[in-house]
Amino acid sequence: MICQAETEQEDQMKWITREHVKVDRVACPWLIKKFVDKDAEFIFAPADKVMAEAKRLDATPYDVKDVELGHHGKECSFEAILKKYELTNDPALVLLGRIVNGADTDNTLYHQAEGPGLQAVAEGFRRLGYKDDHALNAAEWIVYDALYAYAQEMVKGGKPAGKFAN
Q1: CA–CA separation, 60 vs 154, rounded Å?
Q2: Which is nearest to 16 in space by CA: 128, 51, 139?
Q3: Is the alpha carbon torsion for 110, 113, 116, 120 positive or negative?
Q4: Phi/psi of residue 61, nearest 5 degrees
Q5: What letter does residue 48 receive in the DSSP assignment?
Q6: Per-residue pLDDT tens for 119-160?
Q7: What residues pair up with 44 in beta bridges, in sequence order?
Q8: What is the pTM of this model?
Q9: Nearest 5°: CA angle at 149, between 19 and 139?
């Protein structure tokens, strides 16, 4: 079943990804809504229907295979969005990207100590029984607000790689 936000406006940008969100597919909508497109509409579709629905709905696909805003090498989709929308000038967002990467991948790119903690929190949210991906995103975004505040404090304190970096 394709799940769309309840309110639609013709002028807002549509973003689409796979349903049953995990770390990157929660972090990316948070990033998009906060720093790229405050009026974004998010669509979560079955994996095998994302690209067809993206074309049909004129939506930007993210965190799916072989798209610009997906994984590239060991970098995650969050990092692709940071680069595309020129957000890498914010060192706190770059650190947050490293944390998301550490939670969403095998964590061999940065060996980010905070990554496994975020992965555990995200898995916990997935088990709380939210009705759909929109509800899970709405609940979990507070985690990304908190992690961004943490990252800002780390950068301010001279630790742009995080508190637990070697």
Answers
A1: 32
A2: 51
A3: negative
A4: -80, 145
A5: G
A6: 999 999 999 999 999 999 999 999 999 999 999 999 999 999
A7: 3, 17
A8: 0.91
A9: 30
